[in-house]
Amino acid sequence: MSSLSSPTMIPLDVLLALPTAAEFLAHLGGIYEKSPTFVEQFYTENLCPTSNDASTTQATKARITNIKILFDEIKQYVRRSPSEVQLELLRSHPDLCLKLEQIDATQREDDEATITEESRQEQGRAGLATLTPDERQNFTKWNEDYKSKFNIPFILAVRNASKFTVLSALEGRLSNVNSSPQEEIAHALFQVDKIAYMRLLEKVTYSQNQEGHG
């Protein structure tokens, strides 16, 4: 699946001045996995010149002075969405097992179409392809057990994680006998937000009259 996101970083002030949702989504539509609706809702309610008066859009631009503030406002649309929409977001994330080099080549080709470019790059950095046979066996079993137990994929912001971090996190989440499905959903949403924020930082730079992200 092709990404909605533009490969070119855009200054924050230029981003906030984009006149259409399509242009805004071209830059930020991919921060939440296969779920551009949240970004579109933020734009429509705060920046769209045909849906808001000038005072609303100007107030939004004045309020969002750095990338963290921008993200905090976008993620509220995830947090306020119905539970079934949140579950759909979580289930849109690819299975971490799909990036193991040991996966059958035919299966991998079938699954490539379901993985966004953002996820492919992030998972490739986690070193999962270097798992030993024993590590791979444990990882595969724990991953399947987690999905069976909680009915959502195991999600971890793996961009800067080693394979040992991934294995330890998965084993820890699965072995937590006191964790309820609701707690796991909350934990998964927290990880999804981390993933989205790291993606955002690669798409938006500081405003032209600023010296940093803030």
Detailed description of the structure:
This protein is mainly α and 214 residues long. It contains eleven helices and two strands. The chain has a two-stranded parallel sheet. Helix 2 crosses helix 3, helix 5 runs antiparallel to helix 11 and helix 9 packs parallel to helix 10.
From the structure above, extract its key features.
2% strand, 57% helix, two-stranded parallel ribbon, 214 residues
For the sheet with most strands, the description reads: 2 strands, parallel
DSSP summary: helix tally: 11
> Roughly what is the average pLDDT, rounded to an integer?
86
Characterize the overall form: elongated
Low-confidence stretches: 101-113
The helicity comes to: 55-70%
Structural class comes to mainly alpha
Question: Approximately how much beta-strand content do the residues carry?
Answer: under 5%
Strand order of the largest sheet: 1-2
* Strand segment count: 2
